[in-house]
TrEMBL record:
<dbReference type="Pfam" id="PF03739">
    <property type="entry name" value="LptF_LptG"/>
</dbReference>
<feature type="transmembrane region" description="Helical">
    <location>
        <begin position="99"/>
        <end position="120"/>
    </location>
</feature>
<keyword id="KW-0472">Membrane</keyword>
<feature type="transmembrane region" description="Helical">
    <location>
        <begin position="332"/>
        <end position="349"/>
    </location>
</feature>
<keyword id="KW-1133">Transmembrane helix</keyword>
<dbReference type="GO" id="GO:0015920">
    <property type="term" value="P:lipopolysaccharide transport"/>
</dbReference>
<dbReference type="GO" id="GO:0043190">
    <property type="term" value="C:ATP-binding cassette (ABC) transporter complex"/>
</dbReference>
<keyword id="KW-1003">Cell membrane</keyword>
<feature type="transmembrane region" description="Helical">
    <location>
        <begin position="271"/>
        <end position="289"/>
    </location>
</feature>
<feature type="transmembrane region" description="Helical">
    <location>
        <begin position="295"/>
        <end position="320"/>
    </location>
</feature>
<keyword id="KW-0812">Transmembrane</keyword>
<feature type="transmembrane region" description="Helical">
    <location>
        <begin position="45"/>
        <end position="68"/>
    </location>
</feature>
<protein>
    <submittedName>
        <fullName>LptF/LptG family permease</fullName>
    </submittedName>
</protein>
<dbReference type="InterPro" id="IPR005495">
    <property type="entry name" value="LptG/LptF_permease"/>
</dbReference>
<feature type="transmembrane region" description="Helical">
    <location>
        <begin position="12"/>
        <end position="33"/>
    </location>
</feature>
Amino acid sequence: MLAFKYISFHYIKYFIVILSALVLFLVGFDYMGSADKLDISANLLLIYLVYKTFFAIDMLLPLSLIFAMISTKIFLIRSNALVSFYSLGYSRVDILKPFVVVSTVVIIAFIGVHSISNFARADEMAKNIRKNAQYLSPTRDLFFTYKDKFVYFSKMLPLQESAEDIRVFSFKENSLKEVLIASKARYRDEAWHIDSADIITKPDEINFNSLGIKVNEKNNLEILQDFRPKMLDQVYEGKVNFTIKDAIDAYTLLKAQNINTDIVKSSLYKIFVYPFFVPSMIVIIFFFVPVSVRFLNVSLFSFAAIISSLMIWALLFALIELSSHKTVPSEIGIVAPVFILFLIAFRQWRKYRLAT
């Protein structure tokens, strides 16, 4: 228990320091490169920097956990604390446990933060502030299918949960049957509400005896039940950074309509699977480190461990991007590499556990 508390304290300390340094570097570098484009008010500039900070934390938190483990292990070696713990009867697995437990708890906590915040969309909102001086830019010319209807929004405002210039086309037996035309719609109570709309109805057969096209006005209509504005914006604009709730809702809805769900699955794997490569990397790196500086070139080990971590992190990040754009299946691009790292880490852990 003494070793667990001591190592956890230093691990968390190094993690906070490293994450803060990396985030400040990334946000500062971004600001220097974008300062001439940020001709906005001080309030919006502050919000822009906050969103960039959220994006940096989202991207760099897994890497910071690995770097913190490397730093803590070197600290334990240099201070001879590691040798002391081993001499007191602690095994390698006992020393490893604080790193695995703390990193796993941090990852689970961060996934929980994802479920109650807009971390996933922070970069998108920052770009909108830089480009349009507002959090979310209107989505224009949105055309999509919903159940047996085709829907067109000339402009949708996700933040205001409203849409303008709506057209809803209904088909029957591959023939256009009805067109709904409305100037505005607003999302409330899990549906899109239209105060007033014109309904244009086409007869089944057009001939000299048919009554022709009918135009009726109807009030208080509901369309697109359970299709939230932010989900519409993400799914049909082809964006890939879903919040957990939006991703789950989008997957359920698209699956029910037999529409491709690869992008949504990729987003869910990125949130729930990808971060767990960290405990595996910690286990793999941990067992390559000798117990004393007499058997270790600290500078060389630090360089090799950091470069290896960066390369694996960059590879996983690249595979996530490929999966998000449907270049490779998300199961191969995200799940498989994390699972392979887990198998390697489990083999290492089992080998040294049996040795003790």
